[in-house]
């Protein structure tokens, strides 16, 4: 059966592209300087595209549906934490570091869960036909510009 390594690498690599933004959030907490609106928008753009691709391409191909349902619910939770973070930062809430920390910690945990559990399970449990279909969909996404359309992390 075809190897899913390319598809797994696609998602793992995109998880890695989020690390500088998460590090920027950490730096903002340490420095007690609120994250910029541009950084928050960068995170929203990344989540929208990445979560959308997982929910429309990867999760439907996964044979163990409960995991996909749980991860989609996690995406919803992460969006709520992002909304909370954005609201706290926009309103100059004195507790903004706590909301930023909650988002950053949850996102790191989510990335770890996908990299350590979901993606290896996909490699192990998906049928050859499902792997081939997933690789084709990811290739079409890449040909349309894929994640390369995403703007660079704001400085």
Defining traits:
155 residues; 0% strand; mainly alpha
Portion of residues in beta strands equals under 5%
Q: What is the general shape?
A: elongated
Largest sheet: none
Mean pLDDT: 85
Tell me the number of strands: 0
SSE arrangement, N to C = HHHHHH
Q: Decide which structural class fits the backbone.
A: mainly alpha
Low-confidence stretches: none
The total of helices stands at 6
Describe what you observe in this structure.
This protein is mainly α and 155 residues long. The chain is built from six helices and no strands. It has helices at residues 5-17, 19-31, 37-61, 65-90, 96-125, 128-143. The model has no long low-confidence stretch (mean pLDDT 85).
Question: Could you give a quick summary of the protein structure above?
Answer:
The chain is mostly helical. 79% of the residues lie in helices and 0% in strands.
List the helices and strands and how they pair.
Elements: H1 5-17, H2 19-31, H3 37-61, H4 65-90, H5 96-125, H6 128-143
Helix pairs in contact: 1-5, 2-5, 3-4, 4-5
């Amino acid at each position: 059966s075809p190897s899913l390594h390319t598809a797994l690498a696609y998602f793992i690599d995109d998880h890695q592209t989020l690390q500088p933004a998460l590090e920027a959030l950490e730096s903002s907490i340490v420095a007690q300087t609120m994250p910029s609106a541009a950084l928050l928008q960068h995170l929203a753009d990344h989540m929208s595209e990445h979560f959308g691709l997982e929910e429309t391409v990867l999760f439907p191909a996964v044979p163990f549906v409960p995991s996909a349902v749980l991860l989609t619910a996690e995406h919803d939770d992460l969006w709520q934490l992002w909304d909370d973070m954005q609201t706290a930062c926009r309103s100059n809430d004195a507790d903004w570091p706590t909301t930023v920390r909650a988002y950053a910690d949850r996102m790191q945990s989510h990335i770890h869960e996908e990299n350590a559990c979901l993606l290896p399970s996909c490699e192990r449990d998906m049928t050859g036909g499902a792997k081939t279909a997933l690789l084709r969909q990811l290739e079409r996404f890449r040909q349309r510009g894929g994640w390369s359309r995403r703007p660079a992390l704001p400085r």
